[in-house]
Amino acid sequence: EVQLVESGGGMVQPGGSLRLSCAASGFTFTSYDMSWVRQAPGKGPEWVSQINRRNISTYYADSVKGRFTISRDNAKNSVYLQMNSLKPEDTGLYYCARVVQSIARKADYWGQGTQVTVSS
Fold first, then answer.
1. What's the gap between Cα 99 and its chain centre?
2. What pLDDT score was predicted for residue 55?
3. pLDDT tens-place string over residues 28-37
4. Mean pLDDT, residues 80-106
5. For the residues 17-38, what does the mean pLDDT come to?
6. Strand ranges in the chain using DSSP code E only, listed in sequence order
7. What contacts 10, CB < 8 A, 6 or more positions away?
8. How far is C-alpha 114 from the chain's CA centre?
């Protein structure tokens, strides 16, 4: 059974930082690119970032480029999202996802999400 479990969310002031983690199990982690997707209250899902299976290439939405860094540890079956210089518009539920079509950024499994709230 594929499982993705996110952690590390919380409440932070604007300008602060958080590091999200996602622990994967139930599949061969090194066979898949991984991504982070977020959903703000009342809005649809927004693709945030993606990393390829070999931990070589990373991609970011323009809204987070230069502030967020995605990484993975294939030995630990984990993917991370370091978020710096957080803004109120970064508030949302952040999901880790398993990517099945890299160019299309299409995912087939998501975790339960971890809440990030940026507020003063």
1. 12
2. 83
3. 999 999 999 9
4. 96
5. 98
6. 3-7, 10-12, 18-25, 34-39, 45-51, 58-60, 68-73, 78-83, 92-101, 106-110, 114-118
7. 18, 115, 116, 117
8. 10
Question: Residue 3, SS3?
Answer: strand
Backbone φ and ψ for 83, nearest 5 degrees, come out as: -115, 115
40-49: average pLDDT: 95
Amino acid at 12: V
Cα–Cα distance, 37 to 79 (Å, whole number): 13
Rounded-to-integer distance, Cα 20 and Cα 117, Å: 13
Q: Which two tokens stand for residue 77?
A: 């079956």
Task: Give the Cβ contact number of residue 119 at 10 Å.
Answer: 10
Measure Cα distances from 94 to 1, 21, 26, 56, 74 in Å: 21, 10, 21, 23, 21
pLDDT over 90 (residue 56): no
pLDDT at 10 over 90: yes
Residue type, 103: I
